[in-house]
Amino acid sequence: MSSQDPKKKSPEEYIKATFATVARRKDLVAAGCTDWELRQAELQGRIKTVAPGHFGLPHADPLDVFLAQHQGRRTCLNKAKKIGLWVIREPEQTHVAVAHGRPVPGCVVHRVRGGQTLMDILRQCVKCGTEVEALAVLESAVVLGKCTIPELRKEFSGREDTAARAIIDMMDPQSQSIAETVGRYYMRKAGYNVQGQFHVKDVGHLDLLVEGILGVETDGETYHNTPEGWEEDLRRDNLLVVKGRWCLRIPAYIVLHRPDIMMNWISQALDRIQGAQN
Predict the structure, then answer these.
(1) Which runs of E-coded beta strand occur in 134-213?
(2) Which of 126, 108, 129 is nearest to 118 (CA)?
(3) What is the pLDDT of residue 3?
(4) In which domain of life is the source organism classified (predicted)?
(5) How far apart are CA 112 and CA 156, in angstroms?
(6) What backbone phi and psi angles, to 5 degrees, belong to 67?
(7) Do residues 271 and 263 lie in contact, with contact meaning Cβ atoms separated by under 8 Å?
(8) Which has more confidence, 219 or 126?
(9) What is the signed CA dihedral for 250, 217, 138, 18, rounded to 10 degrees?
(10) pLDDT digit string (tens) for 212-248?
(11) 108 has which bridge partners?
(12) Hey, is 48 helix, strand or coil?
């Protein structure tokens, strides 16, 4: 019987588990990989040396390799995107964590010593991102089960964390998508009363309900651009008409990148509804 721990990750499995294609040797060793295992993995072509003290997968991302050559790694909004958190858009310049603090060509440098926790990354996102960008990242961390709101409140309890606490107060852990989160943000900033995941009998949940009278569905491509998604949307839309419920369907890319258009549609729809009621 093999004495190898079945739960222990091989070097390449550990690298993949970090949502990257390159890892520092010190992090691999800390995760339990021995020098012998690293040598064997490299001899067998499962990993390769890409920079001093760094190993990468055979087809490592060129950006990960570039950063390793400068003793750095992705961080802030770029790392948040890599680990699956909701990021509206990645920065034009990659944010990189380095211990030496020296410039890295084409990158924004964060001086970081040692490893980084999720909270470290979230703190960087609050510092570098806009309010709505930070809200999307923090809210997704809760929605996806990576942390809780009480944990966020504890982390951002310092005197310098006023902005972060205001963002936490905006969060809705029932949000189902980045488009819903961002749409809710802009609608509330405009002064509208907004409910998330409003239930309509026989229809299901609307992403958002504005002023108690206008439903808003924020449609992303992943689900809605499928035969099943299209058929379900038709069913829901027909029932909303039967029930006399007004509803807008707004593409996610409009919500995320042209909120001005979204808010103009909402304003016009609310005017039309109120005009029809008078």
Answers:
(1) 194-200, 204-210
(2) 126
(3) 45
(4) Bacteria
(5) 19
(6) -65, -40
(7) no
(8) 126
(9) -80
(10) 999 999 987 665 567 777 788 888 889 998 998 999 9
(11) 95
(12) strand
Query: CA-to-CA distance for 55 and 28, rounded, in angstroms?
Result: 9
Beta carbons of 24 and 98 less than 8 angstroms apart: no
For residue 85, what is the DSSP state? Answer: -
Domain spans of the chain?
7-60, 70-173, 178-277
Residue 276 neighbours by CB under 8 Å, 6+ apart: none
Provide the b/e sequence for 164-200 (b: ≥16 CB within 10 Å): beebbebbbeebbbbbbbbbbbbbeeeebebbbebeb
Window from 171-185, 191-205, 207-221, 224-238 with minimum mean pLDDT:
224-238
Q: What digits encode the pLDDT tens for the residues 2-21?
A: 445 556 789 999 999 888 89
Dihedral over Cα of 232, 233, 238, 240: its sign: positive
Taking the C-alpha atoms of residue 263 and residue 189, their distance in angstroms, rounded to an integer, is 11
Rounded distance, CA 273 to CA 213, Å? 8
- Domain 178-277 class, CATH top level: alpha beta
* CA proximity to 134, closest of 95, 99, 163, 100: 163
